[in-house]
Amino acid sequence: KKLERLEESAGRVTEVEEHLAELKAFESLPADIDELLQSHEQAEAEFSAKTNDLDRDIEGLANQRDTLPTANMMTDKLFIAGVGVGALAFIAGIFILSDEQAIFFPILMLAAFLLVAAGWYNSSRKNAQRGVVQKEIDELTKERASIEKKFKERGASVLRFMEATKSSSPAELKEKADNYRYFLSLQADIREQQGMALGGLRPEDVKLE
After folding, report:
1. Which 3-state string (H, E, C) describes 118-183?
2. Cβ neighbours for 207, distance < 8 A, ≥ 6 positions apart
3. Mind listing the pLDDT tens digit for each residue in 83-112?
4. Measured between alpha carbons, how far apart are the two ends of the chain, in Å?
5. What is the DSSP letter of 30?
6. Residues sharing a CB contact under 8 Å with residue 155, sequence separation 6 or more, in sequence order
7. Labelling 50: which of 58, 91, 168, 192 has CA 20 to 30 A away?
8. What is the number of alpha carbons within 13 Å of residue 39 lying toward its C-beta?
9. Nearest CA to 185 among 5, 23, 8, 7?
10. What is the model's pTM?
11. Over the stretch 157-185, which tens digit does the pLDDT of each residue have?
12. How far apart are CA 157 and CA 57, in angstroms?
């Protein structure tokens, strides 16, 4: 019976060692891997929350920017009106206005200038509004990139461990690490049971009995 138990436990040891061989990469993992993974998980949650907020803000500003059309002074109604009045003033000054009516020429030119200036102001103001919104978008995009860079730097060690153990995610890495510790503990328990069953004897001596 003792021999049967020893042979059974030897088979279990072989099975456990096969599992450990598959998880051999975990021999080099630090003892505080659980703490590292927990810290990484918290950092990942914070990163996700911050970037999600930033993405929503960027999307909202982009929509706001897109509702502000790019202003072209040449198509502004006031600018066109100013050019028209100016042209009319030149024509009137040359062909229509008499000496007594000459006073209307500078008045028409002033009106033309004011209309053109108003058209320029409208176009500049609209483009300035787009510029302000775009600047906010650029700042938020830069902030997001900075947050992403810091997250990757903080999680670099975890990513290296994932690559070394062929884990696709921190959760899979943790699961494999738990399995490795389980089989390592199981191996130690089986060997301890073997030692107790042998009672100080060598396996060869038991076979002889």
Report:
1. HHHHHHHHHHHHHHHHHHHHHHHHHHHHHHHHHHHHHCHHHHHHHHHCCCCCHHHHHHHHHHHHHH
2. 3
3. 888 888 778 776 676 677 777 778 878 888
4. 11
5. -
6. 40, 43, 44
7. 168
8. 11
9. 23
10. 0.58
11. 898 899 988 898 888 999 999 999 998 88
12. 31
Three-class DSSP category at 70? coil
Distance, in Å, from the CA atom of 66 to the CA atom of 135, rounded to the nearest integer, reads 14
**R_g of the chain computed on alpha carbons:** 40
By C-alpha distance, which of 155, 180, 150 is closest to 170? 155
**Residue count of the chain:** 209
Q: Which two tokens stand for residue 109?
A: 């030119």
Distance, CA of 121 to CA of 73 (rounded, Å) = 9
Secondary structure element (H or E) that encloses residue 200, with its range: none
Name the burial class of residue 8, with classes exposed (0-12), middle (13-18) and buried (19+) by CB atoms within 10 angstroms of its CB.
exposed
Other CB atoms closer than 10 Å to residue 176's CB: what's the count? 19
